[in-house]
Design goal:
Keywords: ANK repeat, Hydrolase, Repeat
CATH architecture of one domain: 3-Layer(aba) Sandwich
GO molecular function: glutaminase activity
Strand order of the largest sheet: 8-7-14-13-12
Number of helices: 21
CATH topology of one domain: Beta-lactamase
Distance between the termini: 17 Å
Catalytic activity: L-glutamine + H2O = L-glutamate + NH4(+)
InterPro entries: Beta-lactam/transpept-like, Glutaminase, Glutaminase_EF-hand
CATH class of one domain: Alpha Beta
Largest sheet: 5 strands, antiparallel
Radius of gyration: 29 Å
Strand content: 5-15%
GO biological process, one term: L-glutamine catabolic process
Number of strands: 18
């Protein structure tokens, strides 16, 4: 049995309709109800010409030597029968000029339905989650709201036919088609998530390290807490462990604060006050570089000066609200809170930071007119901002995505600020372990004494690891182990992709074969996606579960028998 390939048939269809330009053909989102749907291909890529009727007009002439057995799509016209202007044809004619390419909504329905006329809503939701998308994704709000309303109107509250399904998904069809076509950065998301779970379990068995106690509120966290959250640049999500427990960002806020300062003022202005070099010293040392500037914004001295650059001239209340608003945008409006108890605890035990502040004031490191004590108050407040692993992973993914929040699509940070932030995270982000981390893991990261590690895989994903027990350098014991194991398994290290290098797993490749690039150039739209699906390759592999010529589904099934050589 040989089957027709959709792309080649459509190409011949277009070539035999010279009065309509290709751009005119793909202009419409809707397709005729009687348009035929194809799957499979000849081994040699050749086809015979098939006579298809669309609004009564023959587009392709048949060749001798082939015969076809098919059932009709609901409302389709049989080429061997007289053409009738039934209701479906009248609807198509009245709908301006219907396109001849299959609409994306129908393609998505058939790929999920596998030959059935109706699908249960939970089957769609399960398939959606398998791609890494969540039903609570802000980009899918219209789809999920419509799904709820539609199910209430059905008799059983469960099943969706093709028309109801189309009504639900049409507002988000481009995103959904990308997901189901495995066009996201991690195409096979479920196997990847399983591997992350295995790495999580391995790190959970570690028992070393101590919970930070120099800030009394931090000492109250259980050493058994352990969580990992991932958000890709396409908004695919995976979490494992205690990912909904709030904790304070502490030093993990430093790169975010620096990114906002550069976004507001530019790189040149910010680095009039702060250097770019690793200090080689403890993060809370009273020490400046040869120009009497803090070495970098990832140590306490640099972070205090960076705090003074936030919304200069405004009150501390306005500055705090501004930072909270910015961080919520980075987190896609997921949880960002504040622990007043931790703030009070920090301020009461912050003698070293007060000493650093006065030293910076003596060396005239602040912009003119800066109130040093007010800056320290804001510094303690920003360290006491709370997140969960889930919301912090979106923040990291915003950095990985060049400043765009993956789950809202909103531009939050400038490309310049993201580039500079990732550069300094890579060289200075892990306290005195920064060189070792850059060598072994090779990714931008920032740790904090609350037990968090904010990890960025540029153009791929953001990760937040959190476990309170720390090693002697102030980094999470389990977090370091997880990051090391992650790069041992996957080729995420900055230099893993050098030629002739030993290969690791690449989750960005489907089935380990070839890299999946987003098709087209520039932002995707409905028409370019529809064209790609219809003209490049088959959308599904299973159209009908049976081989009979009378199929109960509304999908057209083409069967061919080879009677001699093709042309």
């Amino acid at each position: 049995m040989l089957q027709l390939r959709a792309s080649v048939v459509l190409k011949e269809l277009i070539q035999t309709s010279p009065k309509r330009s290709f751009s005119d053909i793909i202009r419409h989102k809707k397709t005729l109800p009687n348009a035929y749907i194809y799957s499979g291909a000849y081994p040699d890529g050749r086809i015979s010409k098939l006579k298809t009727v669309c609004n009564g007009r023959p587009f392709i002439l048949p060749l001798a030597g082939r015969r076809f057995l098919c059932t009709k799509t609901e409302g389709a016209i049989d080429p061997t029968e007289p053409v009738k202007k039934d209701e479906s044809v009248q609807e198509a004619t009245a709908d301006k000029k219907a396109g001849i390419l299959p609409c994306l909504e129908d393609l998505l329905f058939y790929s999920i339905a596998e030959g059935q006329e109706r699908i249960p809503a939970h089957k769609f939701i399960t398939a959606l989650k398998a791609t890494g998308l969540r039903t609570g994704d802000p980009r899918l709000k219209e789809c999920m709201d419509m799904l709820k309303v539609t199910l209430k109107s059905t008799s059983d509250g469960v099943m969706l036919d093709r028309h109801l399904f189309k009504k639900c998904v049409q507002s988000n069809i481009v995103l959904l088609t990308q997901a189901f076509r495995k066009k996201f950065v991690i195409p096979d998301f479920q196997p990847f998530a399983s591997q992350i779970d295995a790495l999580y379990e391995k790190a959970r068995n570690l028992s070393g390290g101590l919970v930070a106690d120099y800030i009394p509120q931090l000492a109250k966290f259980s050493p058994d807490l352990w969580a990992v959250s991932i958000c890709t640049v396409d908004g695919q999500r995976h979490t494992v462990g205690d990912t909904k427990v709030p904790f304070c960002l502490q030093s993990c806020v430093k790169p975010l604060k620096y990114a906002i300062a550069v976004h507001d003022h530019g790189t040149e202005y910010v680095h009039r006050f702060i250097g770019k070099e690793p200090s080689g010293l403890r993060f809370n040392k009273l020490f400046l570089d040869e120009d009497d500037k803090p070495h970098n914004p990832m140590v306490n001295a640099g972070a205090i000066v960076c705090t003074s650059l936030i919304k200069q001239g405004a009150s501390n209340a306005e500055k705090f609200d501004y930072m909270m608003s910015f961080l919520k945008m980075m987190a896609g409006n997921e949880y960002v809170g504040f622990s007043n108890a931790t703030f009070q605890s920090e301020r009461e035990s912050g003698d070293r930071n007060f000493a650093i502040g006065y030293y910076l004031k003596e060396k005239k490191c602040f912009p003119d007119g800066t109130d040093m004590t007010a800056v320290l108050d804001l510094y303690f407040q920003l360290c006491s901002i709370e997140v969960t692993c889930e919301s912090a992973s979106v923040m990291a993914a915003t950095l990985a995505n060049g400043g765009f929040c993956p789950i809202t699509g909103e531009r939050v940070l400038s490309p310049e600020s993201v580039r500079d932030t990732l550069s300094l995270m890579h060289s200075c982000g892990m306290y005195d372990f920064s060189g070792q981390f850059a060598f072994h893991v090779g990714l931008p990261a920032k740790s904090g004494v609350s037990g968090g590690i904010l990890l960025v895989v540029p153009n791929v994903m953001g990760i937040m690891c959190w476990s309170p027990p720390l090693d002697k350098l102030g980094n999470s014991v389990r977090g370091i182990q997880f990051c090391t194991d992650l790069v041992s398994l996957f080729n995420f290290h900055n230099y893993d992709n050098l030629r002739h290098f030993a290969k690791k797993l690449d989750p960005r490749r489907e089935g380990g074969e070839q890299r999946q690039y987003t098709f087209g150039v520039g932002p995707l739209d409905y028409e370019s996606l529809q064209k790609e699906l219809a003209l490049k390759d088959t959308v599904w592999t299973k159209v009908s579960p049976t081989e009979c010529s009378e199929d109960s589904s509304t999908t057209v099934v083409y069967r061919m028998e080879n009677v001699g050589e093709g042309n």
